[in-house]
Design a protein that fits this description.
The protein contains no helices and 9 strands. It is an all-beta fold and 112 residues long.
């Protein structure tokens, strides 16, 4: 199966972020390209109670904060993000999410 970029689900969860979500690529994994320009989410943090994700930084640099600990990341870095971890990004980044089981927006809980 091939999903063209033009066929992706495109959305902006906040003013600093845009996402190309490649829905239906697999029953076991999902893929999304996310561009962050600032803090994402703008306030608070996310918790995904369902998915484990591998995040690969395609471009840029910044930080991911996981359970309050800052990790400086840049192009070429890879992050293992386990489910039930509090996290947010800050920086100018293009990242590739690989999530299993497949990610759906409703799973990503925003907390203040």
């Amino acid at each position: 199966m091939v999903i063209k970029r033009t066929d992706t689900d495109v959305f902006s969860p906040d003013k600093n972020t845009s996402v190309h979500h490649y829905l239906g690529i697999s029953d076991y994994i999902s893929v999304a390209e996310t561009k962050v320009n600032g803090r994402h989410p703008v306030a608070g943090f996310f918790i995904n109670e369902v998915c484990n994700s591998v995040i690969y930084v395609l471009e840029g640099k910044g930080s991911i904060f996981i359970n309050g600990e800052e990790f400086v990341i840049q192009a070429g870095d890879c992050v293992n993000l386990e489910k039930n971890k509090k996290y947010y990004f800050n920086g100018v980044l293009t990242i590739l999410y690989l999530s299993s089981p497949p990610f759906y927006v409703e799973q990503n809980l925003l907390r203040q």
